[in-house]
Structures are given as C-alpha cells and as structure tokens.
Amino acid sequence: MNKQNGRTMKYFQLLLLFFLSIAMISCSKDNRKNHDEVISPDSIYQEIGNTQVIKEFNGITKISVYYPKIGDEVVDQKIMEYVNSIVTDFKNEVMLKQEQGEIAFDYTPRLAVQYETYASYPNIYSIKFRILEGMPWEEKKRDFVQTLCFQVEEGKNLRLEDIIATSFQQDFYDQVIHQLKTKEIYGKYLDEDMIQNLVMNAVQNGLQFTLTQDKITVYFPKYDLLSGLSLSPTTSIAITAISKNLCLDEQGKLLLGRKIDPDKPMIALTFDDGPHDIYTVRILDALKKYGGKATFFVLGQRVDNHSKVLNRMIKEGSEIGNHSYSHPLLTTSTVEKIKREIAKTQEAIIRCTGYTPKLVRPTYGAVNQTVRSAIHYPMIEWSVDTEDWKSRNVDMIVKEAMKGAKDGAIILMHDVYPTTATAAEKVIQKLTKEGYQLVTISELFEYRGTGLNAGKEYFSSKYSK
Ligand code: ZN
C-alpha cells in the first residue's frame, strides 16, 4: 500500500468509525455515566491472527470480548483459557454482588476487552489486552492492560525475565524507573519513591509487557492520585539499547531457560585475567554444553579487543566482574590509582556490552585497608585455588578443583592458558555429573541468601569478612 492510499484508507476508516459511533450512541439505551466504551474490531491493531468475538447481552451482564486466534493449536488454547478466565472472574464478581443483595444496579455491569497483536520475531507473538469493566457499584470504570507473550514453537507463555539475561534484569528495571522519572507527566505527579514502588510491585506481580520489532513496552496498573486524576504509566525501552542482553536469537528462539534449584548444591566457577579469543571461547562452549554459567573477572585493558566474547558471556547468562585495568598489586597502590583502575574497567565493559559489572576481584586476592576504602563493590575471593597458572598441568588442575568442590564453593582459574581451558572442560563435565549447578557469583549469593555488600570480602557462600 502506498502512502497516498494509506492516508485515504485511514480517512475512510475514521469516517466509518464516526458514523458507527453516532449509530451506537443513538441505539444505546443506557449510555449513562460514560461507562459505555465503544469497542469495534476497527480499533484492533493486528500483526497476526484473526479476531474472535464473545458477545453476551443477557440482562444481567453485558460482555463484549475481542481476542485473537493465532493459528497455533497450543497457543490458541492458552489464549482462550486466559480470555475465559477474565469472563468467568467478571461474572462471578457480579453474581457475588447479587447474592449480597445488590440487585438494583444503576446500569448493567459490563465487560469489554480489546486487543493488539505483535509478531515481532518469527517465533514470538505478543498480545496486549485492554480490559474495561464497568461495575455499577464503583465510582470509576476499571481500565487496565494485561499481556501475553508466546514462544510459538514451545507453546510457552514468556515472562519478561525469560527473555532478558539474568545478569541484566536489575539494570533493565533501573532503566524503566529512570524512564518513568524523566517522563514529564509521571515526573510531575509521582516522586522517586512512588515510581520505585510502582516498578518493584509490578516486577513482583509479573511485568505486563509487549515485545515489538523495535521496543519492549512495559505497562503499569492505574495509579490514582489524590487530586482525583489517575495515570496509567507505560514506558518503552528500545531493543537497540538492550539487544545484547536479550536471550533470543534472530528467529526468536530462547537462548536461556535458566532454572536454579536452591535445594541442590551449587558452585561458582571464576576465571581471571581474560578474556582470551581461544581459551575463553572453549570454556564458554563447555558451559553451554552442560547448561552452566560462570563468572569472568576481566582486565579492562583486554576489553576493547575482545568485545565479541564479552558479549557472548552476557548473552549466555554468565557474569562479568572487574579485575582492574592493568593488574597492578592494589595493596601497594594509592587510593586514586585503585579507583582509576576500577573505574576505567567499569567504563570499558559498559561501553562494550551495555552491562554494568557488580563485582570486583582484587588482583592476587590481596586486600588491605587502602583497598577496602577505595573499592565500593563486593570483593570476591575464592575457597578453591587450582593454582592453574603455576602447574599448567591439566590433571593437577582438575584434581585441585574437584578436591575443593562443595556447595557454596568459589573456584579460581585463569582463562588465559590452554591447560586451564582443557581442565575447565573436564571440571565442568565432572561437577555437572556429580549434581552441582554451575552458577554465577551473583546467583550463588542470591540463592544462598547471604547477599553481597560493597567493601566486604567473600570467600564462599558461607564465609566472608
Ligand atoms: Zn589476576
């Protein structure tokens, strides 16, 4: 369709909508209190699927629900179940009111649902439902957005957390908070705490979102202000800004299906002094094969030349930590020098991946009062030293790693030696077979519930100082 035709079409649609509206207003008998929302299929934005309709006008309730049929059996079943649950909940609520004796309603309780579909990836469909409920016993009409997002191949209903790398999720929430704060309309009425609460509550209840070609849009529940005004905050994050942290390949296939079982033992493998084009890649391949993750404490000076491997770490759910810029002994450095070493590395990693590291591993594990006062991040030490840099012997490295393996352990290796890569391949296989989950440092401390604090040293999930 060319632009001219598009415009004519749009004009025609508007005209049609106008006449339809007039027709509907004149037909509608109880158009009181502005509770009637004119919803016609014309207003449905649809990139995929056919419109299905549920209409019921039975004197007790008025229901007019539009929903899509995608053409995939499993997904369509799930959409129908979802839509039916909205209708059932609505009817039950009305019935309960009637049982409570409130029979004489001002007007008929009504439910209207409209939707939009987005087929952003070949495999992923996003559906946004706008749900309007006019309940005669309530002053205001309910008006809210709920979303579904399906990966069609697996018939899986995706949460936002399924498509954003674990290590990036907090950053994503922070970006959402920042966007809301800087939007004039929200910034004017909502203070920082309100926005923070709004977002964190929504995160706990499961964020409502749509994934479209160019952005992820997040929808928040209606927020009533004291002035009687209400806001329905929404905000969008551009895909280009977060594509490195999306767990989707170009076909919309999930790269991550991360499930950590807190009841099973877990170990954090850590690799220092990299990244390396060959050895780090071999370790990442092994992690991928066994579904494990690790933490890579990288040197700032190596970041720019290893952009590809760093981005792969993040994308595959591993974690990047800061191991200084040029590997000086920090205990003999000045506070200014230490701060510069850490800051330069943070900047390089952010520039290269968009990810902000949360952890520092002090060089040589050496920490004194000066280092403590200069580093405002959790400092990650280790409980198992494989001495891989010293022995350069595959069997010895594997032996040391396995000797210290237990729940909560942090194992130290260096991803810059061929012997370490070979040993790591074996260790990853052995630990996985023994039932260990290979997790990142952040995951280890999250699942073992101890948390991580700036300026403290951590040797395992059970020992810190
Ligand atoms: Zn080092």
Low-confidence stretches: 1-6, 14-39
By CATH reckoning, the class of the largest domain would read: Alpha Beta
| CATH fold name of the largest domain | Heat Shock Protein 90
Q: How far apart, in Å, are the first and last alpha carbons?
A: 67 Å
Radius of gyration: 28 Å
- Tally of strands: 20
Main sheet: strands, sense, barrel: 7 strands, mixed
Question: Residue-averaged pLDDT, rounded?
Answer: 86
The percent range for helix content is: 25-40%
CATH superfamily of the largest domain: Fervidobacterium nodosum Rt17-B1 like
- Cofactors and ligands: zinc ion
Number of domains: 2
Can you characterise this structure?
The chain has 465 residues and is an alpha/beta fold. It has two domains: 41-245, 2-Layer Sandwich (Heat Shock Protein 90); 266-464, Glycoside hydrolase/deacetylase (TIM Barrel, Alpha-Beta Barrel), CATH 3.20.20. Helix content is 38%, strand content 22%. It has 15 helices and 20 strands. The protein has helices at 3-27, 73-99, 160-163, 169-182, 184-189, 192-205, 239-242, 279-290, 307-315, 335-353, 369-374, 388-391, 394-403, 418-433, 441-447; strands spanning 45-46, 50-57, 62-69, 110-121, 124-134, 142-151, 156-157, 208-211, 215-219, 223-224, 230-231, 234-238, 266-272, 295-298, 319-322, 379-380, 384-385, 410-414, 437-439, 457-458. The strands form five sheets. Strands 1, 2, 3, 4, 5, 6 and 7 form a seven-stranded mixed β-sheet that branches. The longest helix has 27 residues, at 73-99. Residues 1-6 and 14-39 have low confidence and may be disordered. Zinc ion (ZN) binds at residues 272-273, 323, 327, 363. Zinc ion binds at residues 272-273, 323, 327, 363.
